[in-house]
Amino acid sequence: MWRPCGVFDETYEKDMAIVRTPLRWAALLASLLALGILPQVASYHLISFVNNVAITVILVLGLQVVSGYCGQISFGQAAFMAVGAYCSAILTEKMGISFWLAMPVAGIFTGIFGLVGGAPSLRIKGFYLAIATIAVHFVTMWLILHLEITEGSRGLTVKPPQLWSVSLDTDERMYYVIIPVMLLMTYGAKNITRTRVGRAFVAIRDNDLAAQVMGINLFYYKLLAFFISCFYAGIAGALWAHLNLVVHFEQFTLLHALWYVGMLIVGGMGSIPGVFFGVILIKLLDELVMVVSPILAAWFPWLGTAPAAGLGVTAFGAVLAFFLIKEPRGLAHRWEIIKASIRLYPFAH
Amino acid sequence: MRRALVCGFCFLWVTFILALKPLEGQAKEVTWVELADLTGPVAGLDVPGTMGLEDYFKDLNGRGGVEGVKVKFVCVDTRYDVARALSAFKRYRRDEEVLAMGIVSTPLGKMLKEILGKEKMVITCPGDGEFQAHIGNFFTWGPTYQDAFAAVLDWILEDWRKKGQPGKPKVTLLAWDTPYGKEPLRGGKEYAERIGIELLTPEFFPMGTPKHDVYLSRIEASGANYVYVAAVDPIPTNIMRDASAMGLTKKIQFVSDYWGPTALGVGTHPEAVEGMVMVSFFLRGDEAQNHPLTKRIWTTYRKEPPEKMNEMYGTGLVWGMNFEAALKDAIKRVGKEKLTREAIYESYERLTGMSREGITGPCAYSKTSRRGSQQVRFYRCVKGKLVPITDWVTAPDAVSLHKW
């Protein structure tokens, strides 16, 4: 997977390549093949789980751009996802636009909406910005609840997307939409972070005053980070809406926004693989709790529903606390260390 | 650090493997999955209900099950999180041993309705009238929210006349700003028009609102005579606390829907809730705590005195009774080996008139009804106790008045 110690890039193209060795190419192709045949061999539950993970990955990638790379803490991601979901639902159901057009439009609309949410970042930062984004969450939810077009508390029913004559009405079929979109979005995020824009984000995160002195336009780049982040959330929302066929404001709570930030902390801020690590670990933990709690209840009947009630939030809290104390740079950092130690083997450094 | 990570990973892996290990040496089992909110906003009603259901199945299995078929109870805490509940639903959706499910979230119900389509599976849920209007997989626990509201409007009219007041009373709704909070109006509004009651502008407030003074002030200014409160306990108790502090409980009659204060809540704020009236489709207060069946099962499995029992526990027992009766019917019709979700679904539609030992009114499920029962009873909070003020009455059908 990794380059052996002592192998160097000889051209600029090689240096810039994302996939840099034949072994990596092989691993990538094998992974794509495995992803392609997964619905044929895996259970319905596993596919629905993968879909859920993939949508969350898209969402958290957006959060990674704005928080992990640009350093702007946001608790508004669940609300932005809601905007994308509603936008896509309205475009397809009320205006008769195809899902394939509605999805990018929802992303762009959410991006523009996010500019409003991100505007406070020009004047405030840190905890203050976090609180401002929480306010954005509540304002968004209030709007959804009270606007006529969103049908208030009734929510919107969505039809499954059509691909020619095929209705993508099952998890297995939607998988073939969600996974390519996730891969595309991952590729996009990876590239953004390697460009001039990405470097500007990192400079702002590390020291915004110094970045400004260097000539980086804070106004432009902070808003751009919010736009990109919300674009991702919008795409995730559109996919969520058309996978689950109903959009309702109670699907996007502040608690979800906290979970997304938690996933970022566990995975590692400022790392694209970290998003995958964080999302997969937290989602797996959630599934594990779901599997384990009935078993515990069956083995220890005196516990009753206690494992089901207590285990989920406790596990999440414990994992988060563990990472904040023991591994504040997240699983991505550990992954880098493991990669380096294998690359340098048998030498320690 | 690395050692800690490796140990943690090993622990998770071993737990996962253990979790996958099948339970051996068991008789024929069917499964009920309860997607409950045990730690979220409606935990106040769902925790005791789930406890009741769990204990009923323990009792049923202790009696040998239904003709040897035992019921496995699986409970998942959804935390009122739709995504998590959906994930849990998908985990069990194609498990053939799962014959029925229970849920507690209106948005989840809407979502599952779309996902299930024409697939037949019994899903029990609270009182959303939509599920009665569009007959399908969802069987409500009692009368719908609008039916209960219509029954309250009848009671209000009678109370107004009894007090010798002229004209018609002014009524308003004070409810959560959620689908559940707004549900009474879908049909209830039409019923109010039909019987000539003026419904004032409703007041909706977000879940988690700590103080309700603003809404109560507006209600006072509107000149309402009666306020119908639709929120899950302890919120109605909190509302009464605020109303009592503002002196409104002496001027306005507060009436709660069936998720209003339980005996435990009434005992906590006896002065504040004094005089509040409540419509209920299940026994409350002493009646519930001293009911022979609830008392026996509660004291056997919870080993606590009956006074500590939340009345929703009895509703959980009723969910269990329904399932037992449906299972019995299905086994009789198709046999033990051919038990399917469809058979259970059809059996639920045949439970019409089934008695629940008086914990609720008789079952109203049929091919054309998804109502758990159509009977309600009124209670009043008096000196820290819930006292019945009417016998069981049949709630009007408000669902059919609404244009769905």
- Number of discrete domains of chain A: 2
Lateral arrangement of strands in the main beta sheet of chain A: 1-4
The secondary-structure class of chain A comes to mainly alpha
What is the CATH top level name of the largest domain in chain B? Alpha Beta
Assembly category: heterodimer
Strand content of chain B: 15-25%
Apparent shape of chain B: globular
Overall body shape of chain A: globular
Description:
- The complex is a heterodimer of chains A (349) and B (404).
- In chain A, 73% of the residues lie in helices and 2% in strands.
- Chain A has helices spanning 12-16, 22-41, 44-69, 77-93, 99-118, 127-146, 171-194, 196-206, 208-213, 218-244, 254-267, 272-299, 306-326, 330-344, and strands at 156-157, 162-163, 166-167, 246-247.
- Chain A folds into 2 domains: 43-252, no CATH class; 253-349, no CATH class.
- Chain A is mainly α.
- Chain A has 14 helices and 4 strands.
- In chain A, strand 2 and strand 3 form a beta hairpin.
- In chain A, the strands form 2 sheets. Chain A has a two-stranded antiparallel sheet with strand order 1-4.
- In chain A, helix 5 (99-118) crosses helix 10 (218-244), helix 8 (196-206) packs across helix 10 and helix 11 (254-267) crosses helix 12.
- Chain B has 404 residues and is of the alpha/beta class.
- Chain B folds into 2 domains: 26-143 and 291-373, 3-Layer(aba) Sandwich (Rossmann fold); 145-280 and 376-401, 3-Layer(aba) Sandwich (Rossmann fold), CATH 3.40.50.2300.
- Helix content of chain B is 44%, strand content 17%.
- Chain B is built from 16 helices and 14 strands.
- Chain B has helices spanning 2-20, 43-62, 82-93, 106-116, 130-133, 145-162, 179-182, 185-195, 213-222, 235-245, 263-268, 270-273, 285-289, 292-301, 312-334, 341-348; strands at residues 29-36, 70-77, 98-103, 122-125, 138-140, 170-176, 198-199, 203-205, 226-230, 253-256, 277-280, 375-382, 385-388, 393-394.
- In chain B, the strands form 2 sheets. In chain B, strands 6, 7, 8, 9, 10, 11, 12, 13 and 14 form a 9-stranded mixed beta sheet that branches. In chain B, strands 2-1-3-4-5 form a 5-stranded parallel beta sheet, with helices on both faces.
- In chain B, helix 2 crosses helix 15 (312-334) and helix 15 (312-334) crosses helix 16 (341-348).
- The radius of gyration of chain B is 22 Å and the shape is globular.
- The relative contact order of chain B is 0.14.
- Residues 20-26 of chain B have low confidence and may be disordered.
- The interface between A and B is large, with 47 and 51 residues.
